[in-house]
Amino acid sequence: MWTRRIPRLLALALALTLAACASTIESPSSKPEGQTVMHVEQIKAALVGDWVSVAPEVRPSANKNPDGTLKPFYLTREFKYLAGDRFELNIVNSADPNGAVPIARIAIRGHLIWRGPHSIAAGAQKVDFVADEGYEVTPLIQGFADLLNQVASGYRKWQVNDTQSVFGKAFLPFGLNEGKNFMEFDLVYLSHDMLFWGARNVDGRGFDKEENRPTNLQIPLVRK
């Protein structure tokens, strides 16, 4: 009998503990002691400049392994924020965790749209990234160029280190639709001279709509 009751007792203890903590723990959006919370214009001013990945990063992708688990997606980022809410983003996707085998380079240019505070941390802001100026893809390995020649029609032959614009065009490998700008519902948070965006959803969902906007912080970028 006690064996059957133990899980219920543990669940009850956990519930009581969480209830007690809820009465004492401050909201994540509370102002950290000694930290000044910037308003949007201050954040924009501080954001200007170049930011880079600390090391190769990992994301859950939308593709699955045979056992149903999500395949990892390795990348490094270079981000530049410019006047007028403009941005430039370069991503290098790699086949391995150390970034030793680069597969493709993706270059995106566009604008940030600021949507108001995000609850993850004091000073965090909801931001939409809109690629309304440019979207380019460069294969960096023959296998990826061969794959694009099979699945990305309407382009000249894909070759290693040959950049092609997919801006405003249909591009099946990345789910881009003709005449529609790529956009992500994301977040921005600056702290300790580090730039955080939103952590990818663990189930592989993209930031393609408001309800999929991230609720946690990604590994940060640092100033270049």
For the terminal residues, how far apart are their CA atoms?
62 Å
Structural class, please? Answer: alpha+beta
Q: Any idea how many domains?
A: 1
Report helical residue fraction: 10-25%
Question: How many strands?
Answer: 10
The general outline is: globular
- Enumerate the spans where pLDDT stays under 50 for 5 or more consecutive residues: 1-30
Q: Determine the number of helices (DSSP H or I, runs of at least 4 residues).
A: 3
Average pLDDT for all residues: 86
Gyration radius over CA: 21 Å
The fraction of residues assigned to DSSP E strands is 35-45%
Read across the widest sheet, the strand sequence of neighbours is: 1-3-4-5-6-8-9-10
Main β sheet profile: 8 strands, antiparallel, barrel
List keywords for this structure.
224 residues; alpha+beta; 8-stranded antiparallel β-barrel; 17% helix; disordered N terminus
Task: Give a short overview.
By secondary structure, this protein is an alpha+beta fold.
Protein described:
With 224 residues, the chain is of the alpha+beta class. The chain has one domain. Helix content is 17%, strand content 38%. Strands 1-3-4-5-6-8-9-10 form an eight-stranded antiparallel β-barrel. A hairpin with a 5-residue loop joins β2 and β3. The radius of gyration is 21 Å and the shape is globular. The N terminus is likely disordered.
